[in-house]
Give the backbone structure.
Amino acid sequence: MPLVGPRSRRFVPLAFVLAATSLAACRDKPQEVSTPVASAASKPVVPPLTYELPGTWPKVAESQISAKRATFKVPRAGADTEDAELTVYFFGTGSQGDADKNFSEWFSQFDGNAAATAARTTLDSPAGKVDTVEVAGTYKVALGPTVGPKKRAAMQMVKDNWRLYGAVVRTKDRGNWFFKLTGPNETVQSAKGSLEASLQAAR
């Protein structure tokens, strides 16, 4: 005869009690997170070159993945009416980082045989040897993608009395790092000493 009233009891099957207890224990137990296994094909990241530029040269662009790693604005000097620009490039440790190839491309942006007239010097730094090039003249700024074997753009902006001061820091194990300072003649000449000091202290 079933029990009724406030003293009545409901009997729960033992199997259900054990299942509920086991489920509660699983919920209380912290979930294990598997540690991902590093891919054998992954490549180590090349430590960046460390350098310090004047605080008056604001950084206007930066990237950790493209060849153009950083761009700085160099304020105009003297009677110049435009600012100069310093761009830092890193093409990796392969053939794209060849110094002669990149310098040749920079020289081709000037009228005439800039490669033959460019001034060249060598500096020392904690990071490695630094080779510099310097040329002045009429500079052609591409206003679109370069095409053809001579890599010419369909439209160009021509800058007279322009100067390039470029450098490559040849590190021992981090590839070549390039610095390209371009702008009005007087501004680049005024900024060259500060850039040289930064290159000689690069690590």
